[in-house]
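Cont'd.
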Amino acid sequence: MASMKDVAREAGVSVATVSHVLRGTKHVSAELTERVRAAALALGYVPNLQASALRTGRTQTLGVLLPDLANPFFVALLHALAPAARAAGKVLMVYDAENDAALELAGLQRMAAGQVDGIIWVPVDVDAPHVAGRSTPELPVVTIDRPVPDTDAVVADHVAGGRLLAEHLAGLGHNRVALLSGPEELPSSRGRRRGFIEAFAPLTPVWESHTGFSHELSAEARALLDGGNYDAVVCANDMVASGVMRYLTERGLSVPNDVSVVGFDDVAWASLMQPALTTVRQPLAAMGAAAVRLLLERLGDPQRATRRVVMPVELVERGSTAPPDLVTWPGEATEMALLGREERN
Amino acid sequence: MASMKDVAREAGVSVATVSHVLRGTKHVSAELTERVRAAALALGYVPNLQASALRTGRTQTLGVLLPDLANPFFVALLHALAPAARAAGKVLMVYDAENDAALELAGLQRMAAGQVDGIIWVPVDVDAPHVAGRSTPELPVVTIDRPVPDTDAVVADHVAGGRLLAEHLAGLGHNRVALLSGPEELPSSRGRRRGFIEAFAPLTPVWESHTGFSHELSAEARALLDGGNYDAVVCANDMVASGVMRYLTERGLSVPNDVSVVGFDDVAWASLMQPALTTVRQPLAAMGAAAVRLLLERLGDPQRATRRVVMPVELVERGSTAPPDLVTWPGEATEMALLGREERN
DNA sequence: AGCAGGCGGTTAAACGATTAACCGCTCCTT
DNA sequence: AAGGAGCGGTTAATCGTTTAACCGCCTGCT
């Protein structure tokens, strides 16, 4: 690989001059500029970014630390990050924590080893010790979706999303809603749940079960669904909604004729499900751009106060929701109270 | 950030000794080893990988250059690559070419700038000039799915996959098959098509249209589907299959009762579709591991002859295929010959 | 005339790690 | 006893780039 020294020799100047020409850090006469340019081209010179990074302390690389690449939401986020980073001339170093806090910590340390200028991070678990203790001393961090105290953060307005769903379902005439909320410890799940309940509660009580983000339904969730006495299911996210639709269909129920189902996120295939899924869209492209912007701003001014950006969400009405069928349900209504956990307060 | 010099001072030894202790490159007395370890721990020392890379010429980073992060297949591939890379102590630098050859070239150059030890690459277009000319002089490359001459490559056995589908459909009794093959220039599409036709041709002719990999169907594809006279649709991949199932369903046809549909790849949500999709699974985890292994082998021995690894595929039978309904089709059979392109030999 | 200051370039010191070469010392061999 | 080998450590060169400091030289001001 041709180095700057080679270019300098070829052009008959010092390496300093080559550097100045290539970076424009100092004015160089037209003649020498031309000679240097020509030499660089002739030798196929390409600057060694490692060396440059060593000297300047800037790698032009951003770390992306995600909890799970198997989750389409995070993948979509990555997809949104990529163009924003490129626009800023940065390249992404991606680390998949595979939902494992130990792996996440390893990734964090690896990135702290001077490999990246900053990190865009969706923590596996905001309550894990290494998150609070922030074992990464002085590496700028922007969190997305799962904000960590004292970091810049980008989050969607989950509360508003929950509210939109509540209003949509209430508007259609639903009043017996089963709620499959996501992991209790996640701010996103909590926000969606709160928004939904606050906007829906005046109408009717709600049966609820906590579940993961997988399309595999928990035993508790299945019991709740088997119990009947609901005319709509509000799911933790689109993957869960997909699992629910499948489960209901297999049991001979029709979505949306017998039961309406809603998800959250609007992943790519939500519109391809049968029926197409009504859900809440998070503005991923904007969130990715915001995260990159926040990180660059902090790189420019490390002392800046941390900021939290809340992005608006949008209801996407599709075929999985419809007015409830007012004919009584096949199941008995009396046994319902035993199933599912009671809504606490 | 504490550097090696700091550790050396703290432990009262030279930086060389610190390096030897930390890397185990030379034997150091138990006492000093202990002192160095303690000092490193106390100062929270973490080696600067940039400096290390500059000196040794090894970054411990692998580049991953993908054509499109919006395509779930490539995302799944990335997901398969991540654990394999980690197991080898490497971290991944991911670049999304967004199906744009110019962007791909930019990514290639960026990675050639000493940022990675080697590249795992799925080219946007194997016929693009920068692919053949390989504008990346001496950077080890492993291609996946779209092999480039004179590189190590990992590919699934697409021909066998096509054959499996043909045998499956023929076994069910289908003999009027519409073929929506993928982009003609891609080796994967060509292989699937060839395998299918070779195994199916003895039975019956095939109507065919070339299409992209998107769930948005081309006008030609829609015309073919509208034409009728088929009892099964063989799709370029799962995304296309999903679009086809939706299109057919909207037109009142039932899958698999009226028409069987098959895809290719077995992406994550293939099993969640209604009906669940019969498809061919590519062994992604194994392919990712193979790619990393090939790349590491080449790093170890740059002179080694290039190798191509062909991975076995597997038919996954699900609900989207069934024996054909022998009742005659609603459409007329006579007008069919006009629609779709004739099978060219 | 004398001096400040700009211009266009070079010199050389970093950045942080790796590693060949070397230096005393001890111990073994012949 | 002389020479060689091994041990445990240090010195110093090096990777490729950046950039502060410096050096002549020419201009223009007073």
